[in-house]
Amino acid sequence: MLSGLRLILKGDDGDNGACLICGDKATGKHYGASSCDGCKGFFRRSVRKNHVYACRFQRNCVINKDKRNQCRFCRLRKCFRAGMKKEGEQNKFLFPIAGSCTCHSSHHLAPQTWAS
Ligand SMILES: [Zn+2]
Ligand SMILES: [Zn+2]
Questions:
Q1: Are the C-beta atoms of residues 36 and 23 closer than 8 Å to each other?
Q2: 65 CA to middle of ligand 2, Å?
Q3: Which of 20, 31, 55, 93 has the fewest CB atoms found within 10 Å of its own CB?
C-alpha cells in the first residue's frame, strides 16, 4: 500500500521508480505518468485505436505486474487515473502561444491588456 508514497519520496538516484499502473519498473514518464514500457504501449494502442474495453467484474480489478493483462478496462482506467493523457489533448483548449509563431499577424498583438 505504501509503494505509491515511496515512489514520490524516492529522488534522483537515476531510478525511474515504479510504474503507477502496474508497479513494474518504470522506464520514465510516458503520456504524463511514470510507467513501464508495457503500460506505455498498452495506453498508446488503446487511445490510438479508440478501444472500448469492458470489465467482466466490478471495475475494480487489481492491476499489477502479473495481472495487468487480465482486465484491459481496469488497466486503461488506471492509466487515466495515474494522469496519462492522450497525445495533444492537453493543448486542445489553449490559444496559440505568442512567440511560437513568426507570422507577426495581428492575432498575436491582441491581448495587450496583460502588459500593464
Ligand atoms: Zn506498467
Ligand atoms: Zn476489471
A1: no
A2: 15
A3: 93
CA of 33 to the centre of ligand 2 (A): 20
**Alpha helix segments (H runs only) across the chain:** 3-9, 37-48, 72-81
Q: CA separation (Å) from 67 to 13, 41, 52, 90?
A: 28, 16, 19, 30
- Per residue in 70-99, pLDDT (tens digit) is 999 999 999 999 999 987 655 444 444 444
The closest alpha carbon to 24, from 36, 15, 32, 16, belongs to 36
Question: Does 86 or 113 have the greater pLDDT score?
Answer: 86
Q: Which ligand is nearest to the CA of 55?
A: 2
